[in-house]
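Handout for the seminar on molecular recognition.
Each group receives one record of this type.
Step one: identify the two inputs.
Step two: read the structure output and locate the region that could contact BIS(adenosine)-5'-tetraphosphate.
Step three: write two sentences on what you found, then compare them with the reference statements printed after the record.
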Amino acid sequence: MLNIVLFGPPGSGKGTQAESIIRNYNLLHLSTGDMLRAEIAAQTKLGLEAKTLMDRGELVPDSVVIGMIENRLDAPSQTVGFVFDGFPRTVKQAEALDALLATRKAPIRLVLSLVVGEEELTRRIIARGKTSGRADDQNEEIVKNRVVEYRNKTEPLAKYYAAQGKLKEVKGEARVEEVLADLCKEIDAVK
Ligand code: B4P
């Protein structure tokens, strides 16, 4: 299976690029951010608890997102692979994902890390906030907190995947189509 992780700070283009990658390679998109927002929209207990944390720019507990991913992996599908977008975000999540995929004999093949500077991240998220309606896109303090969470809890994952020889960095500040072309080159190399 072609299992790919899209990795990078908030606003680096993970969700944007995932949409094109799943179309190009016929993969299934698993975005924990989208799953959590669907829970919020449906006003489930999980969604209401997650909303408080997400609105502050904090991560939701590992057990919650690991459980959501496990449910999706267990759902019947004919897919040839998954694009994990915004998951894993902590070393604990990465270890859980490796264990879930090991039992399915379908390990992660590639981790694509989108590299974007902090000024550009803030600019993009605040611009998206004008139309997204997302509380976590609305003000610079919350956006900064999301970046701090990323630096503290998510960035250490780069080392985790580099040690497995799976990490590829791609510059993420160019136009969307140019970034996509660079990502596809990396995917074609492992396909
Ligand atoms: P996510 O939904 O994953 O949100 P995100 O980090 O902002 O990335 P997203 O994919 O939406 O944005 P993109 O970079 O594509 O997470 C939201 C929250 O959910 C987290 O803060 C956390 O609370 C919670 N959460 C989710 N997963 C979790 C987990 N595993 N563990 C714990 N908590 C979790 O795009 C941003 C903007 O940039 C867009 O407007 C886009 O149009 C623009 N853009 C993209 N590429 C561009 C380019 N090349 N040039 C110019 N603009 C570009």
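Reference statements: The chain has a mean pLDDT of 96. Residues 3-27+79-190 form a domain with the Rossmann fold fold (CATH 3.40.50.300).
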